[in-house]
Amino acid sequence: MQEIDLPPAFRDRLSGYTSEKDTLGQSASTVLLLRADGQPPLVVKHEKSGPFAELENEAARLEWLAAQGLPCPRVLGQAQHAGQRWLLVEAIEGIDLASSRLSPAERIVILADALRSLHRLDPAKCPFDHRLRSRIAAAEARMDAGLVDENDFDDERQGRTARELFGELQLRNPKDEQLVVTHGDACLPNIVAQGGRFAGFIDCGRLGVADLHQDIALACRSISYNLGKEWVQPFLGLYGLPNPDPEKLSFYCLLDEFF
What we know:
single chain, alpha+beta, 10 strands
């Protein structure tokens, strides 16, 4: 770990570990996978400090989620160092559902089970508000700060501007919300399995109370991309929502363009 300027609070803890950059996720933070003989695997994340930094939010959400009895990375430390926000967690043993060698049929069962377990939590007890009023305001703030990557829009929105999409977002704002505790980015890379079973949620910085279609929309999009469109309807049946609201599915994919 000599090549990484770690926070002083992390250095003794990470002595003897080697690091590998995680290139699978699309997080704004840098993610390093750490391993050492005879020691548990760890993950260290860091990002530029500032009003849009998310790692402090993620730490709070991981600690809350763990307190509800759902598996997720255990927070080991946080720090501010060299203009960066840092988060150190214990990795979940297993492999994410995008990288897994399990069959598509097995993977959609695990994904459906994981989301059902999360959505069964009582939203009244969750302190993180990701309802539409809050998230649309956050989307606008990110747009105004120039943080929306217009080159990374989904294929059907390529060539459009963030300002155009925000206008569409306001026009299509759903009138009702079926509130649950959502992961916020419920794609296959963020669900870990081991031994053919759900092992935990990762990248939980957007966890909060929102319409269940927030998770279902991004899960269906991820299934289409990673497994094929033919697996979307079987997943919906396993989850227990065979006929989701198509307008909401489309809306929450649109909202995701801003994050």
